[in-house]
Batch of 2 targets.
Target 1
Amino acid sequence: MAAWMKGAGHGPLGRLSMRLAAWAAPPHRGRNLLARLSPAGFVAASALEHHPDLTYGRHGFIGERVVLYSRDGSGRIVLGNGAHVYQDSVLETGHGGEIHIGAHTSIHTRCQLMAYVGSIRIGSGVAVAANCALYPYDHGTVLGEPIARQPLVSRGDIVIDDDAWLGTGVIVLAGVRVGTGAVVAAGAVVTRDVPPNAIAAGVPARVVGWRQPPPRDRAEPVEHLEAIAAAGGRDLP
Ligand SMILES: CC(C)(COP(=O)(O)OP(=O)(O)OC[C@H]1O[C@@H](n2cnc3c(N)ncnc32)[C@H](O)[C@@H]1OP(=O)(O)O)[C@@H](O)C(=O)NCCC(=O)NCCS
């Protein structure tokens, strides 16, 4: 495995090396370890890349059947060092929208990041749980015209700041900022900004609490981003 990953890269031969290394590796998130073995990281053979402006960070992970797509050749996708995108997630850009994913951020299975018109900017050490959807645009809804023919509009970019956690099934709409260290509870629909370190829940999401300092007798945590990096990304179960 390690020997094959020495040849890993984003050209045809580098990808062949990744494919050969994957044969001997465990499936799904078990292949994270391959990403750690090479600065080129790991991209599953079944991932679909149709994007003219795609930048990989070092030691990144792209899982099975992930789609990285640009509809009209516009926008950028920039993946930070140690960023992980798990299987069946779809990252699309179009109409000038961009996607930026920070270092050691994980996008878990079946997430949809659809950066049309507006952009999606996710910071470092962020955890986006399975089945989340981030949509920084809407269809025009003027009465009397078919919605499908109306132009896409955006109320602004989506920004998810460092260390935030989106629980499973969260939907984030246009123009929203989720602050540093904020927690968004499972199933929430975020229509307004969430302040740093808040815990927000519900539809529409409202602040239901705040993160609390650790109890005094708790052991010192390992330096946060270092710990995430050592684990090969924020790899939540
Ligand atoms: C948000 C969460 C972390 C709990 O945070 P917490 O601070 O311990 O919150 P509590 O359980 O004390 O709940 C606070 C209030 O929010 C409500 N609440 C918690 N989670 C909620 C949710 N997903 N949707 C709606 N309301 C929710 C509680 O009912 C409670 O309301 P009440 O005060 O009226 O009784 C947890 O509920 C959650 O959603 N976890 C996400 C799990 C997940 O997606 N895991 C994927 C792994 S990456």
Target 2
Amino acid sequence: MVREVICLHVGQAGCQIGNELWELLCLEHDIRPDGLLKVPEESLIGKDDTWKSFFSETQNLEGRTRFTGRCVMVDTDPSTIEGIMHGNQGSFYKPENMLSYKQDCRGNFCEGRTQAVEFRIVDSTMDRLKRMAENCDNLQGFLVFHSLAGGTGSGVTCELLANMRDDFESGKKVINYGKRCGILRDERRDLSTMVRFGGQVLR
Ligand SMILES: Nc1nc2c(ncn2[C@@H]2O[C@H](COP(=O)(O)OP(=O)(O)OP(=O)(O)O)[C@@H](O)[C@H]2O)c(=O)[nH]1
Ligand SMILES: [Mg+2]
């Protein structure tokens, strides 16, 4: 049985690394950037389908199976998502699961938390996550990708994780909740964010 995993990508680093990840996953599983299979559909019959944990299936207008990532991408800065949607892999994602807003949080954790509430980023993201979770038969958990230095990656993620804990953990829908891939690149900036907001960022 497929045990679904939902990926949440937050902020520039989270979304860009996510885009690279999906490109790789598609290559590994013979899926074209537009979500259609490179191999005949019949060749998958009877084969192990555990790889479908990461992909959801839909039908295109011609009745062919089309795969799309079980993922939500969110960034306060509109240019990240725009870049991804205009890139190679753009047509692979469902547009309604790609959320972007007006301007970034300038590496400020508090700004991230403020925007998350003020612009209802948390509400919209949770809505997408819940809808995705409802379409799963055996949801295994979430993978959350975000940087620690960015204002969106730290602040918005912090708000989202609090909500995800409330909404998903109690119903035992999620067994292995919230594996987070913190991205550390610019060490000085990242460390200062962690020191300042350590208790809140790294729960
Ligand atoms: N590995 C990797 N690191 C990245 C990438 N983009 C940004 N970073 C790193 O992420 C940190 C900055 O965080 P960002 O993700 O850009 O910030 P953000 O979450 O968009 O937040 P704001 O822009 O402040 O709203 C820096 O350390 C960057 O070096 C990327 O594509 N790959
Ligand atoms: Mg940004």
